[in-house]
Design a protein that fits this description.
- The complex is a heterodimer of chains A (270) and B (501).
- Chain A is mostly helical and 270 residues long.
- Helix content of chain A is 73%, strand content 0%.
- Chain A contains eleven helices and no strands.
- The longest helix of chain A is centred in the first third of the chain and has 33 residues, at 56-88.
- Chain A is globular, with a radius of gyration of 24 Å.
- Chain A starts with 14 loop residues before the first helix and ends in a 9-residue tail after the last helix.
- Chain B is α+β, with helices and mostly antiparallel strands and 501 residues long.
- Chain B contains ten helices and 32 strands.
- In chain B, strand 23 (383-391) and strand 24 form a beta hairpin.
- In chain B, helix 3 packs across helix 4 (144-157) and helix 4 (144-157) packs across helix 5 (173-185).
- The chains are: A mainly alpha (270), B alpha+beta (501).
- Chain A binds chain B through residues 157, 159-160, 162-170, 173, 177-178, 181-182, 260-267, 269-270, and chain B through 75-77, 96-99, 102-104, 106-108, 110-116, 118-119, 122-124, 127-128, 144, 147-148, 164-169, 183-184, 187.
Chain lengths: 270, 501
């Protein structure tokens, strides 16, 4: 009987990555989960989750986090979409340098950017606070919002727009009936690239904001950093809730993308 | 200097028997002197064309000839650099595409991917404004019931009655094509523009769609303007074919006439296969080519006028010794219903198509019947440019200084430079020539190639050469000064020549 020679399969190249993922992502996640269900005496408990959902202060902070993330994302989208639209249309779409100018800030350390923005704002007489924090986040995440929208608009087949005009739609109608719906995938990608990091990060709000902008990420950090604030178990439970919320947002985004890219089958027309 | 040079080289005669703008009353589209320049490249060159109501007109030409640009100008996606397009007598320059009474079937269909089939077809109807005096605004929109009825009728017409709720991405190429046609015709345009709509389909599908489109044209009774580079498609579908090249109309005629009586060597070469020879008219009904006097059916040429002679490969009859030309068979290829043979005779490779096979190596006799010979006026027989004497034995034209004997002229004189086709030498290396150019056309004319090049100064040169050059080759141009004739520039005389020519 012939035996197949043992060959080195291409899939083997994924093993190192797999190992890194297991050690640095999966194991820590399991640890978080374990801590979340572990009481201070080491026994199994739901107390940590109970604390998350009953502690009024925590819920308010969670609400504030959703609020500031939504507001910053909305403001950023409102600025980035028109900019992306202009950059992607003639004659600017031939000038690659223009879009580059919006992206170059991504190459500078974000701490430096925030410090710089802080100086500029204070020179203008704007001190730390809610407004400054929102400005900071819009500024910091602008390229992440711009780039996916710009790419979708730039690569969109111009014949769709021509077909729409050919069928009797003027520029405004064409934008709302063709260009905007077709650019939804870019918008969703930009929103998720901004909303999710803002949700869990706390550096910008800490540096640019004041007590009114303390987000849930900052609380989690405190719980882990200073024993006096609480314990690992509570922090882990809170992290886990955050993770679930982000996952839900992602699933929603994916659902919306699929819906806009494919027309629904069946159902009533007109 | 420019208009003089341009007129001379670009003025290609349109078949004089077909004057499409005889009476403008029945023309739905009137194109007058349209020129379109993109980044200094002239894509449409002073083009005029009238299209009769209800006709199936095809714009035919190689890629880059300007046919799609012309269609886009009619649709309103491009605006002409100069000239005017009239639809039903109304100038279109200031009218945006969404207000024009035309609809387009796009090359890649451009169906909206976020809408289903029904909504794609209904797109134009939902936007349409109907005059209605009873309304304050003076117009009304279609009702849902009307839209549903019209869309279903259009889908029925293209054979997709039950596909309304399908996702357009789930359709095959042929089905998408049908949706695109339905979407355009449901708006009841006065003119339907089709931009190579069958290009993406496979051969069998394409043949089916050709027949269906033709039927649709008959049923709808509206004007179709169809763009294609496929000559067979053009000949089989159209009422009128407009052959274009380099942004200039070469011939406007019915398909049969285009094939049987091409107006110039370009059309003959582009439509079907041809043997093209350079010949001389000895007298009426007698042409001399490849050293033989052959009877033909053409007359009205000057004695000893140089002409192009075209013979279709299927019009050459292989006989046993009674033909005008004798040659040796070089190769034979079976093409399904006939054999295609290359026959070498007097240094010219004839292409012959016949039901009967002649084996390579055998000697055959070829008979060409008088009515199979098509005689065409040569477009031009000499290159003519406007130049200036810039020194002793130096003449500058087309942005290059050439060594040409200047006896009898003084520096600074404006001169007309006549350069015979055989006085020009093309060089492989651009640096070896005086000026650089791109090869735009290469026609085999019996014993030599006639090559057309386009120089960096936007001038055409015609060259007779023994070498074959490929399209778009970069070449240098050298001129044998001894063969060039100079003439003092006389504006009045030139104008007279232009008027005649």
């Amino acid at each position: 009987m012939k035996r197949k020679a043992k060959v080195f399969r291409p899939t083997a190249f994924s093993f190192p990555y797999l190992a890194v993922t297991v050690v640095f992502v999966i194991v820590p996640l399991i640890l978080v989960l374990v801590y979340a269900f572990r009481g201070s005496d080491g026994s199994f408990t739901f107390d940590n989750f109970g604390k998350v959902f009953t502690n009024k202060e925590t819920l308010i902070q969670l609400g504030k986090t959703v609020g500031i993330a939504t507001l910053s994302t909305a403001v950023c989208l409102a600025i980035a979409y028109p900019v992306a639209y202009i950059l992607a249309s003639a004659p600017f779409n031939k000038m690659a340098i223009l879009s580059l100018m919006f992206i170059i800030p991504m190459w500078i350390n974000f701490m430096l950017r925030i410090f710089a923005l802080q100086s500029v704002l204070s020179a203008m007489g704007v001190g730390n606070g809610y407004f400054a924090a929102v400005v900071g986040m819009v500024y910091d995440f602008f390229p992440y919002m711009l780039l996916p929208i710009y790419t979708v608009l730039l690569n969109m087949d111009k014949s769709y727009v021509e077909a729409s005009k050919d069928l009797g739609a003027n520029g405004v109608t064409t934008f709302f009936k063709v260009t905007l719906p077709l650019s939804v995938p870019g918008v969703i990608s930009g929103v998720s690239m901004m909303f999710m990091p803002i949700f869990s990060s706390y550096a910008i709000t800490k540096m640019m904001g004041d007590t009114s902008t303390t987000v849930i990420g900052a609380k989690i950090a405190n719980l882990f950093e200073y024993q006096s604030y609480g314990n690992y178990g509570y922090g882990s439970a809170l992290s886990f809730v955050l993770l679930v919320i982000v996952l839900l947002v992602m699933v929603l985004g994916r659902f919306l993308t699929n819906r806009t890219q494919k027309a629904p089958k069946g159902g009533k027309a007109v | 200097m420019k208009p003089f040079l341009k007129k001379k080289t670009d003025k290609t005669p349109v078949a004089p028997t077909q004057t499409p703008t005889k009476k403008n009353g029945d023309n739905i589209i009137e194109i007058k002197g349209v020129t379109k320049v993109f980044d200094n490249v002239t894509v449409l060159d002073d083009l005029s064309l009238g299209i009769k109501r209800g006709q199936f007109v095809t714009l035919l030409g190689p890629s880059g000839c300007g046919k799609t640009t012309l269609l886009r100008c009619i649709a309103g996606f491009e605006s002409p650099t100069s000239g005017e397009i009239y639809i039903e007598g109304v100038p279109m320059t200031s009218i945006p595409s969404y207000k024009r009474p035309v609809n387009t079937v796009f090359q890649k269909y451009a169906l909206f991917p976020h809408l289903n089939v029904f909504k794609n077809v209904a797109y134009g109807l939902k936007l349409k404004k109907l005059p209605d005096a009873s309304k304050k605004s003076g117009y009304r929109k279609y009702t849902k019931a009307e839209i549903t009825e019209k869309v279903n009728r259009a889908l029925n017409l293209v054979g997709l009655a039950d596909y309304g709720y399908r996702d357009v991405n789930s359709l095959s190429g042929g089905q998408q094509q049908r949706v695109a046609i339905a979407r355009a015709i449901v708006c009841e345009p006065k003119v339907l523009l089709l931009d190579e709509p069958l290009g993406a389909l496979d051969l069998k599908m394409r043949k089916e769609m050709q027949i269906e489109l033709k039927k649709m044209h008959e049923n709808l009774g509206i004007t179709f303007i169809f763009v294609t580079h496929d000559q067979e498609e053009a000949l089989s579908m159209s009422d009128v074919v407009v052959v274009m090249n380099d942004g200039v109309i070469q011939q406007i005629a019915q398909p049969k006439k285009i094939y049987d009586e091409p107006s110039n060597a370009f059309v003959a070469d582009f439509i079907g296969e041809s043997n093209i020879f350079s010949g001389v008219m000895e007298k009426d009904f007698c042409v001399n080519f490849l050293g033989k006097s052959v009877e033909c059916v053409d007359k009205g040429f000057e004695k000893n006028e140089r002409v192009d002679v075209v013979v279709r490969p299927e019009d050459i009859v292989l006989t046993k010794g009674e033909g005008q030309f004798v040659g040796e068979v070089l190769s034979t290829v079976f093409k399904g219903t006939y054999y295609e043979m290359e026959v070498l005779s007097d240094g010219y490779e004839f292409t012959v198509q016949s039901q009967n096979e002649a084996r390579p190596g055998t000697t055959v006799s070829m008979l060409i019947r008088p009515d199979s010979i098509h005689i065409m006026k040569k477009i031009l027989t000499i290159n003519k440019y406007l130049g200036e004497v810039t020194g002793e034995n130096e003449v500058t034209f087309c942005e290059g200084s050439f060594k040409i004997p200047t006896e009898g002229f003084e520096t600074g004189d404006e001169v007309v430079v006549y350069v015979p086709f055989n006085a020009i030498e093309l060089t492989d290396d651009e640096e070896d020539g005086v000026i650089g150019a791109n090869v735009t056309q290469s026609l085999y004319k019996g014993t030599y190639y006639q090559v057309q090049v386009f120089t960096d100064s936007d001038d055409d040169f015609y060259i007779d050469t023994a070498d074959e050059w490929d399209m778009d080759d970069r070449v240098g141009i050298k001129i044998d000064g001894g063969k060039v004739r100079l003439e003092k520039y006389d504006p009045e005389k030139e104008e007279k020549d232009e008027a005649q020519g």
